Amino acid sequence: MTSISTQDYIIHFNQNSYTALNNYIKENSFSNIFVLVDSNTSTHCLPVLLSNLVTELTIEVIEIEAGEQHKTIDTCLGVWETLSELRADRKTLLINLGGGVVTDLGGFVACTYQRGIQFINIPTTLLSMVDASIGGKNGVDLGPIKNQIGIIKTPNMVLVDTNYLSTLSAREMRSGLAEMLKHGLIYNESYYNKLTELSDLTLDDLDQLIYDSIEIKKAIVEQDPTEQNLRKSLNFGHTLGHAIESFYLNHKTKALLHGEAIAIGMILESFLSAELLNLSMDKAQQIKNNTIKVFGKIDIPETDYAAIIDLMKFDKKNEKGTINFALIETIGKSKINCVASNELIINSFKFYNE
Ligand code: GLY
């Protein structure tokens, strides 16, 4: 697959990626290389990366615990301290090998350590391949508030090796699919239809769908890198989805993966789109059916609505106390800065539950 060039960096795929990485290391006079992994990617992905790296430089590995609950400033502190103890300097290269937590947190650590060192993202989950590792959003959560602390700075390179997906659970794969469905819903109807119509997904199909998803995200981010307007559309499903994810974060049976929460958010926000914009209720129902077919349904009791709605006050699209939704006018066309009443939001939960 041909590499995708963005304004600031290149995304390489599969067999080309390690050649590109080795050439990049050869061309830049790095002092040393640090690889950030979590407890999963340390076992399943690090050996693959190390066997493909050709360099005389010292390679140090820093491991953090896996899971969204570790995407915190405390974890960053541990990584900063290790970098410092092991004499990382301004010419150190940090390679983030992992899912969204590793690439978001690693990017943030790289942007702040000694005021910024180079970093390369190697996403190992579907979600981080099509979303988290692309576009330069780096950061950590603050308590239950997702990505409250962070910085926008693009990586120096992204390597997408879809072979890493073979170690992923079906649940993790579904989580990534949510962001791919979102890309279709906000930007490209035929891509959305392709995703929902595929009954027999081959590995070649998957590679192409990942590639197309990255192209959509790149097109949106390049038009609005700092999220002043169009990039907000990437938050479709996220205003309610993030609140639901935060609300159930530490719940024994209902803790959701990011994509699972976003899938619910997209159903709720499709209902809002039908109520507030031109999306027909039939289409909203079709989106709900397609999504539930893949993700199933959880029970969100009425007694939880108020606390979930309350968590939306932390959404980063809010301005002057108003909660702004990114919705869809139709499949493939988004509209930003939409405002919904509490009553409508409560009805969207009922639409999901019924
Ligand atoms: N994940 C949304 C964005 O990158 O803007």
Automatic annotation (TrEMBL):
Give the enzyme's EC designation.
Answer: 4.2.3.4
Pull one GO CC term from this UniProt entry: cytoplasm
Does the UniProt entry include the keyword Metal-binding?
Answer: yes
Question: What general EC class does the enzyme of this chain belong to?
Answer: lyase
- Please provide, alphabetically and separated by semicolons, the GO molecular function terms listed in this UniProt record: 3-dehydroquinate synthase activity; metal ion binding; nucleotide binding
User: What residue intervals traverse the membrane?
Assistant: none
Give the GO terms filed under biological process for this record: aromatic amino acid family biosynthetic process; chorismate biosynthetic process
Q: Where is the 3-dehydroquinate synthase N-terminal domain?
A: 62-174
Q: Which UniProt keywords apply?
A: Cobalt, Lyase, Metal-binding, NAD, Nucleotide-binding, Zinc
UniProt cofactor(s): Zn(2+); Co(2+); NAD(+)
| Function, as annotated | Catalyzes the conversion of 3-deoxy-D-arabino-heptulosonate 7-phosphate (DAHP) to dehydroquinate (DHQ).
Protein name (Swiss-Prot/TrEMBL)? 3-dehydroquinate synthase
Q: Which organism is it from?
A: Olleya aquimaris
